[in-house]
Fold tRNA (guanine-N(7)-)-methyltransferase.
Amino acid sequence: MTGTDAPQYMRRIRSFVLREGRMTPAQQRAFDTHWARYGIDYTGTAQDFDARFGRHAPRVLEIGFGNGEALAWASEHDLARDYLGVEVHGPGVGRLMNALAARDASNVRLYKHDAVEVLEQEIPPATLAEARIWFPDPWHKKRHNKRRIIQSGFVALLATRMIPDGLLHLATDWAPYAQHMLEIMEAAPDWRNAVGPGQYAEKPDWRIETHFERRGLKLGHGVWDLLYKKV
């Protein structure tokens, strides 16, 4: 699926609002010092990730990694796999690059770009062993629900980038979005529920509890995990 034949809503609507915020001097230095090592500039052409990482290994994509806390932990505790992160918020990207550089990580590369365009243009088919979308913007107001990233067209696109039996892991702390995710995924012909039809999953050990999640739990939010395998 290319940018020209992608569903119309994907070409028209972003699944985020870019609230850049002000980067700290340390975060700006991360771009100046570490982007050449950890960053991938979006060019709209398919990437050779074996060349990018200097090896052939299973690849995990995290979309919307925020401040990078979970991605940093996962990549450090799963050295056999390579990690791709996509995030549009500059301060979060800078913070993660500083954390990666501090331990000389070699199995992470990052995009500061729209995830749909990265999937359409830069990630070749059958590239990903796993994709993670944890706590995406729920777009609470009904008139904004169409902006939610989990839509039928998006998960169909994502399926083309997965290897057979590849894993999609979704998580949210917003109950209406959890139900929306479940309805979309259960109807998606390219995916099957890994724990049983119509079922949410227990929180897997590999998803650490982040600062964002702890804050939500203190506010009384529930958390819902969904695990799906590529058919």
Observations:
- Residues 152 and 188 are 7 Å apart (CA to CA).
- The chain has nine helices and seven strands.
